[in-house]
Amino acid sequence: MAALREKLHNIRTQILSPQTKIFFIGYNKCGTTSLDHLLKSAAIRSVHYHAPMVDFNPLLLRKPLQKIYFSLASEVVRRSSDRAALRKLLDRHTAYSDLFFFSETSQVEAIEYFELFHDLYPEAFFILNDRDENKWLQSRKKHKGGSLVREAMKYYATDTDGVIEIWRSKRKAHVENALRFFEGNLRFLHFRIDQDDIKNLVEFLAPEFKISDRDWIIMNKTIELN
Asked: CB–CB of 175/112 below 8 Å?
C-alpha cells in the first residue's frame, strides 16, 4: 500500500488545493473499480458510481446518522444547468469515476459532461480510461448477468444488436470529442487499461498526488464472452 508519507502528502494536497480534481471520463467496464481502489489506497477521496451523503433521522435512536447513496451520474445531469449546484456536489470529493446510470427509463452517461467539468475545475486532471472496443462491448453486454443490455433494449426499443451498435457509436463519438477537446492539454491522459503501464498514470498525477503502483489490482472483472 501507499506509504504513510504518501498518504499524508495527498491529504495535504486535498486540503490546500481542493479544486485539483481527478475525473475519469471513460466508460464503465474500463477499469473504473480498479482505478477507484488505487486512489482510495492512497488516501484520495474517490467515489465510484454512487456517492454517500449523511442523513439524520432522530427516530432511529441507535443509529440516527445514516449513509444514503445516490447516483452520481443522475445528480450531475440534474444539476448540469445550475453551475453552483453542480459545483457544490463535486466539491465533496476529489476523484470521480463510473459516471453512468442505466434503467429501463434512463440511460445516463455523465462522462459526456467533461467540458463542463473542465470549465468548473480547469486545474483538474482528466483521464480517458479506455480499452479495446470489442472487448469493452462484450464486457458491458455480460455485466451483471446481462442487466445493462436488457435495460438498454427497453429504453431504446431495439434488440441486442441494436444496443451494441448504439453503444459503439456513442463510444466513438465520445472518444473523438474528448481527444479533440483536450488536444495539447498537459492535464489530460488517454490511458488504455489493456495496454498501458499503470506507472504512466502514477507519473501523470505526480507531484500533486503520490500513488503507489503496487496498489494496482484488477477488480470487478466481468467474464468476457467468447
From this structure: no
Distance in angstroms (rounded) separating the CA atoms of residues 138 and 140:
5
Residue 219 DSSP label: -
Assess if residue 61 is contained within a domain.
yes
Q: How far apart are CA 206 and CA 201, in angstroms?
A: 9
What's the CATH number where 116 sits? Answer: 3.40.50
Does 226 map to a domain? no
Rg (CA), the chain: 18
Q: Are 121 and 19 in contact (CB under 8 A)?
A: yes
CB atoms within 10 A of CB 205: 22
Cα separation, 123 vs 194, in Å, equals 27
- Main-chain phi, psi angles of 67, to 5 degrees: -85, 130
Residues 57-95 have pLDDT tens digits of 444 555 555 556 678 999 999 999 999 999 999 999 999
CA distance 159 to 152: 9
**Domain around 104:** 4-215
List 56's β-bridge partners, or say none: 65
Whole-model pTM: value is 0.90
Whether residue 221 lies inside any domain: the answer is no
**pLDDT, mean over the chain:** 90
Tell me the pLDDT tens digit for each residue of 105-142.
999 999 999 999 999 999 999 999 999 999 999 999 99
150 found inside a domain = yes
Name residue 92's amino acid: R
Domains identified in the chain, total number? 1
